[in-house]
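Appendix B. One record, verbatim.
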Amino acid sequence: MSFEYAENAHSTHSAPNTDRDDDTAMALKIVVAGGFGAGKTTLVGAVSDIRPLRTEETLSEAGQGVDDTAGVARKATSTVAMDFGRITVHAGLTLYLFGTPGQDRFWFLWDELSEGALAAVVLADPRRLEDCFAAVDYFERRRIPFVVAVNCFPGARTYAAHDVSHALDLDRGTPVVLCDARDRDSGKDVLIRTVEYAGRMHTARLLDSVR
């Protein structure tokens, strides 16, 4: 899955700011993952500069015995392939966002969606924190830097960042941030933190490799 393909799919939309030379422009791939109903589609749609690509289907009776909808009983649709969005953070830096499907039966798509990713956002539902374990384990095993973003649903219990880190048994230094997936500025802050953290991690690994 290439950035070129994604760009062509949205060629009717305005291009990123090109005040800087093309040689200095940077496009980075970020994966947005997490449990079923955590708000991945909402986050991608809220921050995207273009009309997001969505692959949602209505939940049917056939999936009732397969999909765990506890805590998200009002959810009527589900992503069955991916979400795609694009945001220009500033001139010369564009992020391509690939949202993963949340149900277990679609996890076979994660490897392709994560190919070439700089980093990931693991979106956490504070009502179902245990749903994050699979995503956390996935990115830790593949050494893909990630940030855990706790989506603060209205009425849901609020957890401190260090409590979430402890509950998910995160590696030391893995950032945990609170956010509102519906709010563009909040989502943008999460993405900026993710890029900054990934930059530090990749720099550290590069330095380790030449020592």
